[in-house]
Amino acid sequence: MESSSPSTRVRLKDVALEAGVSTITVSRAFSAPEQLHPQTRQRVLETARTMGYVARQRAADTPERCPVIGVINPQLNNPFFHELACAVSQLGEARRMDVLIMDSHDSPAQEEAAVDRLIACGVDGIILTVISSDRRYRPAYFERLEQAGIAVILMDREVAAPHHGGVYIDNLDCGYQAGMWMRRQPVERLLILSGPSDSLVTIGRVSGIREALAGSDIALEVHYGDFSMAPVGQFLEERLARPPLPDALIGLNNQITLGILSAYRRAGLPLPEQPGGPRLFCIDGIAGAELLGMEIPSIRHDLVTMATQAMDLIKDALQSGSRRGTRQVVRGHLHLPGDTG
């Protein structure tokens, strides 16, 4: 690696490219070195020295740069993640933070591409909901984020990878509340439509339901499948052709519940929560269901609180460089037909 000639000014982004880090990391190496890992700081400073880069002091009257936060969601067409992203965006505006929102479309390749684009943009931090709910999921980009000195806050899905904290739903409690509501109903055969069996979300919610129903006379059937609408609908269409039919169902998220409604409609059977139809409970709730005349008992989550906690963790990580891994857990609340909250 050769140093630049005196006639060519080495820019901050040149050093970042050579060192394999973000421009923000290079800036911090000079302005806030305590926020960087010692090895990262040393690599940046050595690269800058070799290239002949000279850091310029910020003029006293230069306005302070706003932090830039990236948000990566797995399904922005899912109202749950869409509302979370909107809440983060509004908080960013109120807190003078620029927010870039990206959709990974439940694709490992697109998730990685979104991370790389945000690194290239020089973001200070990322609020990340990974595409997998398997805690063992650990794509290689986590190491690149760590090298770049970018704070990572996990949202909703927990994984064993380097991060600065996370905000999660109390899935066991969600399932327990759903099971206790179902236990109070005149139900004999309950079908749970779930995500993958190794998902932490699935394990928590199904365990909570089982705990609530322990000792009851309700016959329980669990289908482990996918958290999206189409696969659930396909399975349930086939299941509805085989008696005895369930007289109650629990959808473990909003997309699963939409798949349930779709399957009943295509089968020509009375819809859940309508005369002659089975009882239905939805964890996560379906946005706007009341407007369609469908009041479905559900567990709902305070998404503004989740977004606020994530932004607080980002702020703490940027100010202190802390990697304490603070774990915030949000409890859902039972929403019944007629409730206005």
Describe this structure in words.
The protein has eleven helices and twelve strands. With 341 residues, the chain is an alpha/beta fold. The chain folds into three domains: 1-65, Orthogonal Bundle (434 Repressor (Amino-terminal Domain)), CATH 1.10.260.40; 68-168 and 303-331, Rossmann fold (3-Layer(aba) Sandwich); 171-300, Rossmann fold (3-Layer(aba) Sandwich), CATH 3.40.50. Strand 3 (125-128), helix 6 and strand 4 form a beta-alpha-beta unit. The longest helix has 18 residues, at 303-320. It starts with 11 loop residues before the first helix and ends in a 6-residue tail after the last strand. Mean pLDDT is 87; it is low at 1-7 and 56-62.
Question: Features of this protein?
Answer:
single chain; 341 residues; alpha/beta; 434 Repressor (Amino-terminal Domain); Rossmann fold; six-stranded parallel β-sheet; six-stranded mixed β-sheet; 11 helices; 12 strands; 40% helix; 17% strand
Summarize the structure.
This protein is α/β, with parallel strands linked by helices and 341 residues long. It has helices spanning 12-19, 23-31, 38-51, 79-94, 108-120, 141-147, 171-183, 200-213, 229-239, 254-267, 303-320, and strands spanning 68-73, 98-103, 125-128, 151-155, 165-169, 189-194, 219-224, 248-251, 279-283, 298-300, 326-330, 333-335. The longest helix has 18 residues, at 303-320.
